[in-house]
Amino acid sequence: MTPLATTMEVGDVLARTAEGSSAVGHEDIGEKLVLNLGPSHPSTHGVLRLVLELDGEVITKADPDIGYLHRGDEKIAENMTWNQFVPYTDRLDYLAPLANNVAYACAVEKLMGYELPPRAKTTRVICCELARISAHLLGLGAFAMDVGAMTMFLYTFTEREKIYNLIELLTGARFTTSFTRVGGQTRDLPPGFLEGVREFSRQFVGKLEEFGKMLNRNRIFVDRTKDLGVISPEVALDFGLTGPNLRGSGNDYDVRRYFPYLGYEKFDFDVPVGQAGDCYDRFAVRMEEMKQSVKILQQAIEKMPGGAWMVQDPPGIFSIACCRIFTLCFISSIRTANRS
Q1: Which pTM does this prediction carry?
Q2: How far is CA 192 from CA 12, 130, 154, 169, in A?
C-alpha cells in the first residue's frame, strides 16, 4: 500500500502567536500567577517582599511590601522558659541587641509585677543608650554612603567599634549579647566599664560635631536630602513609623518621655523633632538624638546607685512556658523598642 502524502505549512511562529493574541484578547491568555519574590534584603535582612503577578514569563504587576519581617518567634517560644528566649531577642534587631534584650525583659517583668532595684534600672538605661548610638551610627554611615559620602561610613564604624569594645567588656560578646535576664542582668558591671563609657562619651561629642560639619557643608549631601522624601506627620502615623522616622516628620512622641520606664523620667534630655519631614530632617534628628544619648549616659554614670543588680528572692515562676501570654509580651517589647 502506498502511504498518503501530507503537506504541512508551519509559517512564521511569532507572527501566528501575535495574530492569535490579538484575536482572543490579552486578558484571555492563560491564568495569572501570583508569586512572592523575597523577603530579600537589599539593605538589611528581610525588609522587602515583592508580590509579583505573572502572565507566563512576563511580570504584569509588582506590589512592594516593605517592612516584611516575620521569624516565627511566637512559635519558637512555645517550648521555652522566659529566660531561655532572651537570646532570640538579640536577633530581632541585631543593630541594637542590648535594647531588644531590655524591651523583652521589661515586658515580662511588667506581667510578673517585678520592681527592679535602682542599680539594675540605671544599668539598663546605659545599655539602651549605647545601643541607640550604635544603631544611629550605622544608619548615618550607610545613609551618607548611599548619597555619595563614602568617608562618613568609615568614620561612623570607627566609633561603633569603640562601643563594641564596651559591650564586649560588659557582656562577653560583641554582637549577640543576651545580657538581660528577667529580673535584672546576668552579672553586675565589670571593673572599668563606667570609666570606659565616660571616656567614650567625652570624646564622642567632638566626633559628632565633626560629622555634622562634614555633611552640613557638603553641597552634594544637602542637595540630595533637602526637600526630598517628604513624609507628612499624618502619613507617618498612618504608616506606623516609629523612632527618628516618626519624629523627623514633626511628631513629638518618645516613649521615654510620655510613658517613662526604667526611671527615664529622672533624666534630663530633649526630644528632637523635625520640621519639613524630608531626608535631611531624619538625618538631623538622628544626629541630635545621639547627642541626647550622650547626655543621658553622662547622667547615668554620675548617679549610678549601689546595691543589687537583680531582683532579690523572685517568685519561683521561671519554669512557666512562654506560650500562654508570649504574644502580649512580644507586642509590648516591640512597641517599647521601636517607639523609643
Answers
A1: 0.77
A2: 81, 16, 27, 9
